[in-house]
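Students often ask why we bother encoding 3D structure as a string. The short answer is that it lets us treat folding as translation between two languages. Here is a chain of 474 residues written in the first language.
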Amino acid sequence: MKQLLLQDVLDSTGAVLLRGDAHQVYVHGVSTDTRTLEEGQLFLSLSGPNFDGNLFAQRALERGAAALFLRGDGTQSEQSQALLAEVPGDVPIVVHPDPRRSLADLAAWYRSTLEAPVIGITGSCGKTTVKNIIRDLFSSLMRVVASPSSFNNDIGVPHTLLLGDEDTQLFAIELGTNSPGEIASLCRIARPSAGVITNVGAAHLEGLGDLEGVAREKGDLAASLPKDGFLVLNADCHFTRHLRARTSARVITFSVEGGEGERGDLDASELYFHSGGTTFRLNGFEVTSPLLGTHNVQNLLAALAVAVGLGVPLEELLPAVAHLQGGRQRMERIELEGLTVFDDTYNSNPDALRAAVRVLSGMHGHKRRVLVIGDMLELGDLAAELHHEVGREAAQAGIDAIFAIGELAKAAAAGALEGGLSAAAVTHIDHTDHAVEEIEGILQDGDVVLVKGSRGMRLERVVERIRHRWGSEG
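And here it is in the second language, the structure alphabet:
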């Protein structure tokens, strides 16, 4: 990020200076983690139920922090005096009762100083992949800042904005949510000039209630966009008409041949899946992407629709498609001795699992297609029904064996039996710890295996056990 005058930090957050001259001190970025703090940065103290960021002030000084932003009331109270006493030296100290809110306020002000367009990206699944594709494609043409990993909440979004400077030409920022109002709040910080809503599906129902609640929450991105901006929508999503009605910005749609909606402005046809990825026709071009599956064609189309919105000719970006790479633990292909594994353990919800099953069911030349499914969390009262449904659909899609892990996944196992799999082909294990022990007895040489579950299930441990047992070809 560009240098920040400490006085600008005070003005944008309403914080109080306890020590130092804010008109003379510049900081070269903001850090909330002393493990990654770099010399010259502002250390902003965050606290939670199990930690107190103020306790790391001394460590921040040792790492070379140029100033400290700590939790405090800003008065001549015993608390403020204690802070001054506990933090020796002449490094400026800034205090505010709520540093987390201050981080958002600072980022919102900083956003107002930047001219680059901000693309806000949300959706029930695919948003991280779309963000990564936008980053990788556009980086061949311009300077892009994108959310690191899944920095998509009220801490991650400000951090992403603060990574930009006057040379940044495009921001790709992921916007996450699990309760009403979060998308609107993040949009007030990021002020997106354009948006992408990948889809509306059964995710975070525990906080958002039902699909209509998910659509309302995702639609807050559409409502935040300026008239001269644009919104990218999936023409095959049932809520596209609803989302379109919530914005006055230009709407650009994408679709895949055979989908349930109307043809989009970008329409992929003649899809062909092969060992090198996916090939399809798009607006007169033949495109080959190394990413597998119809869902990743949709993700690529969403990113290319951003190019249309920005006025970037598709032919300038398409050569970079061949170099795309899937994210870690997102359909990450692992070739082992006698076994092919797809590690899709980053997270899960019903729509994302269905997309992964479609990829697995299309895998040929293997002894068996084995689905290892963990609990899909935050689905509220519909959890058992949704697990049962996807288990049945997986069996009907031609999956040869299902290994279900977790209490909720028991319903998926029952659904698989109802869908036609034999009892010998369906295994249920109540806990990931036990699954790690049992997985070796389930798999056979020649299998292709897909492992997918919610982040809290920690199914990456199952993948690691498989790696250890079968070893790497290299």
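Translate back mentally: The CA atoms of residues 204 and 378 lie 5 Å apart. Keep this in mind for the problem set.
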